[in-house]
Amino acid sequence: MNLDVIQLNKEFEKNSAVSLLQWALTTFRKKIAMASSFGAEDVVVIDILMKLDHDVRIFTLDTGRHNE
After folding, report:
1. Per the CB 3.0–4.6 Å rule, which of 19, 25, 54, 63 could disulfide with 15?
2. What is the pTM assigned to this prediction?
3. What are the residue ranges of helices labelled H in 1-68?
4. How far is 29 from 42, CA to CA, in rounded Å?
C-alpha cells in the first residue's frame, strides 16, 4: 500500500483525532497497534480507540518511570 503522506496530512489537518483514528483503524485493520507508556495523552487516545474498536491492540512501553 502506497500512502501519500503529504496529501493525507492536508486532508487530516483540520479533522478531529476521532476521525483520524477511525481512518487508521479502517485502513490498517489488524496491522495497527498503539504503543503506550500510559501518560496523560496516551490515556486519552486509548479511551477514543476503545470506543471505536474494543479489539484494537495496545502494548506497554516500559519507560522506567512507572510505579512498582
Report:
1. 19
2. 0.80
3. 5-12, 17-28, 40-52
4. 20
